[in-house]
Amino acid sequence: MRHPLIKLVIILLLFSSGLLSAQEIYEDQVFDENIRTVQLYPASSEFSAQMTAPVISLNSSLPLELHFDDIAFETDRYIAKIIHCDADWTSSGLKDPDFLQQYNEFTINAYEYGINTRIPYIHYTFQVPNVTRTGNYILKVYRGRKESDVIFTKRFMVYQNQVGIGAEIVPPSRNEDRRTAQQINLNIGYGNRQLVDPLNNTRVVIRQNQRWDNAIFGLKFTHIREDIKQLQYQLFDGSNVFLAGNEFRFVDLRYVRTRGRNIAKVSMEEDVVFAEAAIDKERKGLTYLEYLDLNGQYGIFNMERQNHLLESEYVLLNFNLESPKLPSPPYVLGSLTNWGKSPDAKMVYNEKKGLYQASLFLKQGWYDYQYGIQSDNGWNMESFEDSHFQTENKYEIFFYYREMGSRYDELIGYTVINPNMRRF
C-alpha cells in the first residue's frame, strides 16, 4: 500500500509540473454535436443584437437571452447554472447566494419546434436571471439533473462603470507594425473609486472582435498620476498591439431557393439542403478593399420566410479554398466555428480539384469567416488574409479590480471602441 505522504508528494509534484490543473479555465464550448447555433446576446428582435457581445451592466433593464437548437424530434430536459469567475476565467471564491437571489438551477422550459424544415430541430430560449455582483460568468447548460452531462458552456460579463476608460486606436509605436497592426492606448481615471495597490490588484483585458484566442491579458500601467487619479498605459514594446487583419469574407445563406452572395450552388433534397460556397483565393499581397462586414460574427436570418428562428433550414455548406498542398491544413475561422474549436473547422485537401475543403452545418443566415493555420503563437491568418492598418475592427476593454481581502475580481470598467464602424 502506498504511504499517504508519498501520495501527497506525487500530487504536489504533478501540480508544480503543470500535469494537474488547480482550477478549470471555463471557455465557450459545445460538447454535444446535436446542439447547434448557440447564441447569447442582449434580448432584442433586432438583427444587429445577434452580433452584440454578451456584456451587460449591473441591474440592466435589458437581460441577456440564450438561444440554441437541438437537432432532435423530441424535447429533452435542460438545466442552466451560473458560475461566477475571476478575470482569468477560473471559478471565483463566491458562493451562489453571493451573486444570485434565486436557487442556482434553472430549467429551460421555453422551446418551440422548427416549422416545415428538412432537418428537424427544437429551438430553446432562456432569459438569464439578474446577478448581484459584477465580474465574469459562465452559463453552464447540462442535461437532466446530471451536472456532469454538460452540453455547452457560454461566457458572459457583467460590469459597473466605476472608472473612466479612455481608449484610442493609434498607429503602432514600432515601425515594423505600422502597416499591419493597430495599437490600443489607454488611460484609466479612478477618481470615483479608490484603488489600493493598483499595480497588483488591477487587471486589464483587451479583446478584438469578441475573440478570446488573441486577447491581451495583464497589461501593466507605465505611469500613475495621483494628482488627477489616472493610470496611464504608454507602452512602446508592442504588448498593446493587435494584427489588424483584413475585412472578413462572408457567405449569404439567407436564401435556399436561390443563390445568395458568394454561394455557387444550392441543392434542395428531400431531407437536407446542400450548398457550395464560391472558391476563395489567397488575399496576401492584394490592395486593401473596404466593405461592410460583421467582424467575424454571424446572424440568423431568412429572406424567404417570416420566422427566422423556427422556419430557417439547416444547410450543409461546403467551403472551398484554392491552394497548393501545405505542410499543415488551414481552418475556417470565425464565430461560426467558435474560432477553430469546432471539429468541422479543419479543412481537407482535395488533390483532384486543388482545393482545401470543409463542410459546415449552418442555419440560414449571414456568416463571416477567414482562413488560418495553427502556429505556436495562435492562429496565423495573415498568410491567407494579409493584414492592413486600415481594417475596421471592434475592440472591448475590461478593467478588473480586486479589493484587499476580497474573494473575487470586480469588473468596474468596460468600454468599446470602433471608430471606423461600418455596418449593415
- Report the C-alpha radius of gyration, rounded: 23 Å
Question: With helices defined by DSSP (H or I, 4 residues minimum), what is the helix count?
Answer: 5
Overall body shape: globular
What is the averaged pLDDT score? 93
Query: Care to count the β-strands?
Result: 29
Low-confidence stretches: 4-21
| Sheet with most strands | 6 strands, mixed
Distance between the termini: 68 Å
Q: How much of the polypeptide forms β-strand, as a percent range? A: 35-45%
Supply the helix-strand structural class. Answer: mainly beta
What is the helix content? Answer: under 10%
Could you characterize the architecture of this molecule?
It contains five helices and 29 strands. The chain has 424 residues and is mainly beta. The model is unreliable at 4-21 (pLDDT under 50).
What is this structure, in a nutshell?
The chain is mainly beta.
Which tags fit this structure?
five-stranded antiparallel sheet; 424 residues; six-stranded mixed sheet; mainly beta
Topology (elements, then pairings):
Elements: H1 4-17, E1 29-30, E2 35-42, E3 55-57, E4 64-70, E5 78-85, H2 96-99, E6 106-107, E7 110-113, E8 122-127, E9 135-143, E10 150-159, E11 164-170, E12 181-189, H3 198-201, E13 202-208, E14 216-217, E15 223-225, E16 230-233, E17 241-243, E18 249-252, E19 263-268, E20 273-280, E21 298-300, H4 308-311, E22 314-322, E23 331-333, E24 348-350, E25 355-363, E26 365-375, E27 378-380, H5 382-385, E28 395-401, E29 410-417
Parallel strand pairs: 3-10, 20-22
Antiparallel strand pairs: 1-10, 2-4, 4-8, 5-6, 5-9, 7-8, 9-10, 11-12, 12-16, 12-17, 13-14, 13-28, 15-16, 18-26, 19-20, 21-26, 22-25, 23-26, 24-25, 26-27, 28-29
